[in-house]
Amino acid sequence: MSTSTPTDPRTPGKHPQNDEVVAPNFEESLRKFWEKNSKLIYVSCAAVFIVILVRGGLKWMHTQKENDIASAYAAASTTERLRTFAAANPGHQLGAAAQLRIADEAYAAGKYADAIASYDKAAGVFKTGPFGGRALLGSAISKVRAGQTAEGEAKLKQLANDSKQLKTVRAEAAYHAAMIATDAGRTEDAVKFFDLVSSLDPASNWAQRSMMHRATLAAPTPSLVPAAVTP
Questions:
Q1: Phi and psi dihedrals of 168, rounded to 5?
Q2: Cα gap 36→159, rounded to integer Å
Q3: CA nearest 95: which of 110, 84, 111, 80?
Q4: What is the spatial distance between Cα 15 and Cα 178, in angstroms, rounded to a whole number?
């Protein structure tokens, strides 16, 4: 009678409980993940969608508002309409542009106090750039015209020496400062600012005027003291 070969106790037998466990496939893993996290995914997607809608809506509203402001500015064809527009848009660039136009009209009419007020409002919005410099220059010259010569001259000198301003603005400011010094008989001060105009914008009309005025200024000469006569 044959006897079966004994089994090595260290070798696992082929029993069902010892069969290798098969990993679940991708579809099954995805199904379980979805069942567990579907609500969170729905909420996240909804939140993202709402953010996109809000941003798009705000951008559209901003664009529409800017278009309305631009249309209102274009329609402001009279001084009174400009005043109304500027009052309704005090911090807007176009509101400042309206103030600049109002200031120019007031200056042309000789209403220098009104011009100063509007130029200063425009400068407060523009701050820098060509329109900001133009507003500051207009305010300074208006102060001189209004009799506030010392304050206006100080503003002109400040503009002339401000490297952040456009050269054209600085050159015009320097020219006016030089003319004030000329009228006051301060030849040395006048020469300094006439020369500054020529160095800043040599091809400009202000430079040509500066050279003409500078040529008429008499060079300061030292006072002659008679030599002591020896007995």
A1: -65, -40
A2: 69
A3: 84
A4: 110
Instruction: Give the separation between CA 81 and CA 65, rounded to whole angstroms.
Output: 19
CB count within 10 Å of CB 148 equals: 17
Residue range 148-217, CATH number: 1.25.40
Q: How far apart are CA 209 and CA 138, in angstroms?
A: 19
Domain residue extents for the chain: 42-75, 78-147, 148-217
Instruction: Domain 78-147: state its class.
Output: mainly alpha
Q: Which residue has the higher pLDDT, 128 or 9?
A: 128
pTM over 0.70: no
Instruction: Name the packing angle between helices 93-108 and 112-126 (round to 10°).
Output: 160
Q: Token digits for 104?
A: 């120019």
Contact status, residue 132 vs residue 140, Cβ threshold 8 Å: no
Tokens at 197, concatenated? 């105009």
- pLDDT band at 223, cuts 50/70/90? very low
CB 207 within 8 A of CB 197: yes
pLDDT digits (tens, 9 = 90+) for 138-168: 999 999 999 999 999 999 999 999 999 999 9
